[in-house]
Queue: 3 jobs
Job 1
Amino acid sequence: MMDSTTPHCRACDAPLVTTFVDLGVQPLSNSYVSLERKREPDIFYPLHVYVCDRCFLVQLESFESREAIFSADYAYYSSFADSWIAHAKAYVAHATQKLGLTRASRIVEIASNDGYLLRWFVERGMPVMGIEPAAGVAAVAVAAGVPTRVEFFGVDSARRLRAEFGPADLMAANNVLAHVPDLHDFVGGFAIALAETGTATFEFPHVMRLIEDAEFDTIYHEHFSYISLLAIEPVFAKHGLVVHDLEELPTHGGSLRLWVRHAGVEPTPAVLAMRERERAAGLGTRESYTKFGERVAKIKRDTLRFLIDAAERGERVVGYGAPAKGNTFLNYCGVGPDLLAFTCDRNPQKHGKLLPGSRIPIMPPEAIDAERPAFVLILPWNIEAEVTEQLKSIRTWGGRFVVAIPHLRIS
């Protein structure tokens, strides 16, 4: 029975009654704890994920405002991942060639972070504008020569952007669509700011791959939606936009890049093929979503069994990385410093802090060489190859790498 507290779909407004997975209660995944605050309690929110029975958008309720999540001390900086910088540079070259961009083309990125992507357009002499709500991160971009407006994007900001910067020939939105609580305000902004012949690209982790590879740790409070082509096309259509082309990407465990334009263009064969693949995978049926929780619970049991056995043998296990996904993973599994002594991260903004919830200390990468652990648990499994190359020195003392998703693997 539904009541006034029943959540509703942010895409189609249908009541949300079907559970995709319930990960308990967890703190905000990017709310890293300073040593000055270590005696203060974390604030926990439900991490209960639903699937809409009408449009099949997988989603969370909104328990915290976007302003609280993406505050001035937001700790994610894109430029600390070498593979992501390479991805951004390749995108710029690809989009420039594909769309025939010139020095006269206006480029906008929504959620432009520290300028990791727009700087490559600046290098090509193109006018750019970043939109980034986290003031601290935006300041880094400005210092690097990337003009950036500190604000959230939507219909109102799109009107200001078009009036002051001009219509955009290319708008990039990498891994931000999932972060938006109001999908229609956000997508409606693209319809306003985009030039009549312009193109917008949206990259996001593909929920089909999330399901196939049990990537439950990519679920956290700042990711409000988990997206398929099937679920998002009607949202674009409501605002006069169409998915013209599509690419599959290896990033973040398997992503889609959609090339979106104003209505009036036909979809390419790649778009038609993905529609059919998603239907064949069952993304248009409720039953395909409801067994996900069983696979997640098995990953938890396997991880705890490994960590407990290592502790009882006296073998030290440390982590690598302090990504948001790692916090979802550790908090769901109930792992603390007794099982994972510390974790390391290249981002100096995180050094000396504690992971939210688990309160595991964050150290510089050099701590691994000093500690010489038996195992390093890679929390950002999506950049496993990069991490194992950076930390290959652990082999000199017999150290081994561990990845827990989609299943426990020791190498």
Job 2
Amino acid sequence: MGVLGKILVFVNLVFSLLTAGLIIVVFTTRTNWRDAYQKQVNNVGIIQASAQADVAAADERIRQKEGQYQALDREKKSAETARAKTDEDLKKAKDDLDAFIKTHEKSQTNIEVATQELARRKSEVESLQKLLGERDKKISDIDLQMANLREQKVNFEIQYKAAKEKLTALMSQNESLTRENAQLRATLGGLSTTPSATTKTAPPEDARGTVQRIDGDMATISIGSDAGVSVNNILYVYRLRPQSEYLGTITILAVTPNQAVGRLGGPKRTQVKPGDDVAAQILPGR
């Protein structure tokens, strides 16, 4: 083989190595991008589910408060009707008392019976006046409760609108991610790669918090990235009172600085409730 042949073989070898390196770089870039995109899609889905659950809960609370408000309104109307009837009874009793007094002044016969009847009439008037005062107090209490319910209704409507705005923003973010995905697919020329499996990791040993909210098999906890918690961390869920009890695990799916959302696991996951403890370790050295 001549010198020219050796040079051609060497050049061909260098070109093959450069081509292989370029393929590896493209494959690595594609794999990392798909992993990051899939994690972001999962986080958006979780947050959307949480926002939709908040909207549904707010709708239900608004309907309940509206029902309570209508019930109190009916009770108020009933009390006002009873008060009007009491007013009529009181007026009639006063008229009877006045008529009896006039009759008593004209006639002095049977003084003892008249005196007893007068005492009875006075007692009846006092009783009706007391009943009227109780009706007025009940109406005042109902008015106060209705005012409180109106304020609660306004608060729930504000929360409902905020949740709707949050859901709209998340849907917009999802659409933006979809467009970015399409652009990246076009840029990378539609290369087909297989993303690596998600690896579950352990959080810091001192990570500890509580369950704040339950939605099916999803739970929100009181610690987040500020405490070292990250996506795919696995924490233990347990309860100390009224007796110590291990409830299962929670795999973190989404994290904010002060909160995290994860999926519950274990045979007692359906028994988990707000206030239960969450920690990276249950026993020292575990």
Job 3
Amino acid sequence: MTTNHEQSDDVRHEKYVLDTESGAEMARLMRQDQLVTQGMGGIFPEKIDLEGVHEILDLACGPGGWVIETAFAYPETHVVGVDISEKMITYAQAQAQVQHLPNASFQVMNILQPLAFPDASFDLVNERFIVGFMQRQRWPQLIQESLRVLRPGGILRFTEVEPGFSNKAAFEKACWTILQAMRQNGLGFSPNGLHFSIFPMLPRFFREAGVEDVAKLAHVVEFSTGTEARDGFYYDFVNGFLALEPFIEKSGLLTLAEWRALAQQGLAEMLEEDFCAVWMLLTVWGRKPTNL
């Protein structure tokens, strides 16, 4: 028989692809967060009406980049970030203190479990890029839990990504291999593993949960050769490919040697003069019904 504590630990580590306490992973996410926010055109490029928004929750905040930027831009708003990683939360708290942002706070919390907040605690619940660890069957549960902690009329806002679009064979194959391994691990909705296929699912999940006024905004973040973002994405993939080695080897899709050779070839292609690539992003948002 397992205790509640043991069950909690099992859930805590369930399906996480990368080491959530890794310093290298934290550095990668910090850089990626800046690239994505810049590529999207800001923290709220969809021009959401934030009148009446005073309490914001950011799910799986990582090292806290979005929380810090939002707290800086909206000093009258209290922004809370939660993440499973103690190391990332400690770093985020330190950054908020150094930047003198008393309206930014952070808590260690596993969003795969019920959130440790009372009902109707927040005016806006945000998340960005959780498809890489959120098992497909858990999405409706997370949305329901997000709605629980939202006040009636509050805003639910999710942003997800579809990576791997390029004109280079090895780079695309490396991305495709990662997506295949994630599909085997219960992540994403693609029938063939070529994409996450989260884009067509998010609006449906919102509507099925009863979210009103559902809206969508797509973004294209380019990191082709000659673009400002190329170098940042190159280092993101250098560290990401390395961190994914145990995951790919365990998947059985490639041996470790095969994966390393493919990853190196894909990274070399990123440095070629004619390399072209984009990430596709989709933000979906809507309001919690006043009677829910």
